[in-house]
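Fill in residues.
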């Protein structure tokens, strides 16, 4: 690589690395973005995993946090070809009796399908939903004194308890199951504190801007962000592996879209003993086992409304989901795992040849698990969509080791960048005044191992870049 000095270098071109690079570049800085893989995107990549003509999202597929993100809202990525598609329903949660709970566009629409729990659901989300346009700026951020203290306190009152505790407000399986499916995105036992916060964020995001997918695949989000960055004068170099600080061109600020373990390997010698100790004890969460399918037809869910949902949560009752997640946390593999399934080709014809379909699913497993969960996952799909297995033309699977090999940030298959348990929710990866600053001047962490954690929202990168701008360039960015 040509030796050149930059104002800032960002290592890692996932959603947060791209967000950090764009935020820095928009302030007039010269910025270089380095990526070890041949293509940018991290968890937003897409590719032909099964058969010719089928496009699969290798990691993330559905993007409620992208359209909710203040960072994404500050950009007009449609100029760079990005188009989000809204399914008929945001998410569905089928049950063994053939019915389903449906996450719809408003609290009232969703509550109307919850029977006797209608008023309880509205009482739970209505105020927070009204506050969401401003509340999301507080929630998708590091710990700080909020601008709207009353709204943030109301969110905390409902978000800090465990999902199991909050489920006591509901009587029926539909509301309890729908709620459990949302909270299980935390990848924690539902008895853990703050699992409700994850469930609430996803419910509120769904009520405001839905759970969309990107036309053509999640790679189109990465490509649009990259085009935005380059159009502003940014530079991108792919297939560049950074193993030490010597591999990085000279810059006043370096931001790492990596997990803490990788950061220690690259720059640990520059850190204080206390900071090294903090990064070394950072806890990673459960991993995932993932399947992509090429199908001869749409998934035949018993409740036809599930076919209109971009995301389907397969786990039946709260009790069954909670038991399975606890087993995973305890190092076991549940016989009936909770399965998160997306069916993008139902709404995006570019994903598969005419008359054919794709589907994407994963379940949680113990961190580092090598167990093949194909049969368990497919049995869960067939349970709520009899005949599904007859539609499978080809499948592609990834265990936790393969997930980590694909993206080193997914240590042990942990796609959240570290456990989201309460002690790491706002202090990830270390207890510091700013979670983005390392103990070495000019070096910053901007990955999902910092607040607000996992998901395609770019807010970790945005806040890290703001910190670097303030520290190293005396540039103050609001928002």
């Amino acid at each position: 690589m040509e030796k050149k000095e930059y104002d800032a270098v960002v290592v890692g071109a996932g959603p947060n690395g791209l967000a950090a690079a764009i935020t820095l570049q928009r302030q007039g800085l010269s910025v270089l973005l380095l990526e070890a893989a041949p293509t940018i995107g991290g968890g937003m990549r897409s590719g032909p995993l099964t058969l010719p003509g089928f496009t699969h999202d290798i990691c993330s597929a559905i993007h409620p946090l992208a359209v909710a993100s203040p960072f994404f809202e500050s950009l007009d990525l449609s100029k760079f070809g990005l188009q989000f598609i809204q399914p008929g329903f945001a998410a569905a949660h089928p049950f063994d009796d053939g019915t389903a709970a449906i996450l719809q566009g408003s609290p009232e629409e969703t509550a109307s399908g919850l029977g006797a729990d209608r008023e309880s659901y509205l009482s739970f989300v209505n105020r927070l939903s009204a506050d969401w346009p401003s509340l999301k700026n507080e929630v998708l951020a590091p710990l700080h004194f909020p601008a709207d203290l009353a709204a943030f306190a109301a969110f905390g009152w409902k978000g800090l308890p465990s999902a199991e505790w909050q489920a006591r407000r509901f009587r029926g399986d539909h509301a309890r199951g729908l709620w459990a499916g949302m909270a299980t995105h935390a990848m924690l036992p539902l008895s853990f504190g703050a699992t409700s916060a994850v469930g609430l964020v996803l419910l509120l995001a769904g009520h405001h801007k839905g759970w969309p997918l990107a036309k053509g695949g999640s790679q189109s989000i990465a490509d649009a962000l990259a085009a935005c960055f380059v159009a502003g004068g940014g530079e991108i170099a792919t297939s560049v592996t950074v193993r030490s600080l010597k591999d990085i061109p000279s810059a006043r600020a370096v931001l790492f879209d990596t997990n803490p373990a990788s950061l220690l390997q690259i720059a640990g010698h520059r850190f204080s003993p206390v900071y090294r100790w903090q990064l070394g004890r950072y806890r990673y969460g459960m991993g995932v086992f993932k399947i992509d399918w090429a199908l001869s037809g749409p998934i035949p869910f018993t409740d036809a409304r599930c076919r209109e949902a971009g995301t389907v949560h397969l786990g039946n009752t709260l009790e069954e989901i909670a038991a399975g997640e606890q087993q995973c946390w305890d190092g076991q593999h549940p016989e009936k795992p909770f399965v998160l399934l997306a069916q993008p080709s139902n709404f995006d014809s570019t994903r598969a040849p005419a008359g054919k379909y794709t589907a994407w699913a994963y379940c949680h497993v113990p961190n580092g698990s090598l167990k093949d969960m194909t049969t368990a996952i497919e049995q869960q799909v067939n349970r709520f969509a009899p005949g599904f297995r007859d539609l499978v033309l080809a499948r592609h699977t990834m265990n936790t080791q393969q997930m980590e090999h694909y993206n080193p940030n997914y240590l042990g298959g942990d796609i959240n960048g570290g456990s989201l348990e309460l002690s790491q929710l706002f202090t990830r990866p270390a207890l510091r005044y700013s979670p983005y600053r390392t103990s070495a001047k000019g070096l910053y962490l901007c990955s999902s191992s910092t607040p607000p954690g996992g998901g395609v929202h770019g807010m970790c990168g945005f806040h890290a870049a703001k910190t670097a701008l303030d520290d190293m360039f005396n540039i103050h960015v609001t928002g």
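The chain has 16 helices and 16 strands.
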